[in-house]
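hey so i finally got around to running the thing on that chain from the lab meeting. sorry it took forever, my laptop kept dying and i had to restart like 3 times. anyway pasting the input first so we r on the same page abt which one it is
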Amino acid sequence: MRVLLSETLTLAQAAARCNCHPETYSDMIRKEGAPGCKVGRAWVISSSLLDRWLEQRQCVSSSETAPRTGTSTSSSLA
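ok and heres what got predicted. didnt touch it at all, straight out
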């Protein structure tokens, strides 16, 4: 598969786009398949591949309520 790169990002720029730390993004490259290619000592990330990868991930809105866990129904800690 041949990909034409219209714009590339540094690791810091890609991390900023994902709202995470650059070290977190480099971990995501290694462990979660986030786009990125090591050129020498620098990471190079295709902007279009990053956008596509982000669109494919299942995102959960922070406004949604997480399911309750455990068996306690009491709201008091005392």
